[in-house]
Amino acid sequence: MAQFSVYHNKNKATQARYPLLLNIQNDLLASMQTCVVVPLTKVETMAHSPMSKLTPIFAVQGQNYCMMTPQLAGIHKRDLGAEIEILTAYQHDIVAAIDFLLSGV
């Protein structure tokens, strides 16, 4: 399970709104049973325009998804669905969004 991997959301209560989960936890902590994820939502389902620095947009399997950084959460790894893509190319944007959430810069 690599950092910046995207997984299907298996949680029936949230998967309609957040169909994908982005693992942001560093690979050094791979032995833990939990991981920190950020939900991804389809851009076209959003009621308002995303804040580009806090909620960047990524292409995943040909569709645009918004990283819902304020909704980050820790979950058990067994609650992740299948891995579908790795967003290493967006590493700078992902880390910048988390930094903005924590520091405001």
Could you give a quick summary of the protein structure above?
This protein has one helix spanning 91-103, and strands spanning 5-9, 20-23, 34-42, 57-60, 63-67, 73-76, 80-86.
SSE topology sketch:
Layout lengths: L4 E5 L10 E4 L10 E9 L14 E4 L2 E5 L5 E4 L3 E7 L4 H13 L2
Antiparallel strand pairs: 1-2, 1-7, 2-3, 3-5, 3-6, 4-5
Description:
It is a single chain. This protein is mainly β and 105 residues long. It has one domain: Roll (SH3 type barrels). It has 1 helix and 7 strands. Strands 1, 2, 3, 4, 5, 6 and 7 form a 7-stranded antiparallel beta sheet that branches. It starts with a strand and ends with a helix. The model has no long low-confidence stretch (mean pLDDT 94).
Number of spatially distinct domains: 1
Report strand %: 35-45%
Average pLDDT over all residues: 94
> How large is the count of helical segments?
1
Tell me the overall shape: globular
The number of E-state strands comes to: 7
Terminal residue distance: 29 Å
- Structural class by helix and strand composition: mainly beta
Helix share of residues? Answer: 10-25%
The CATH class assignment is Mainly Beta
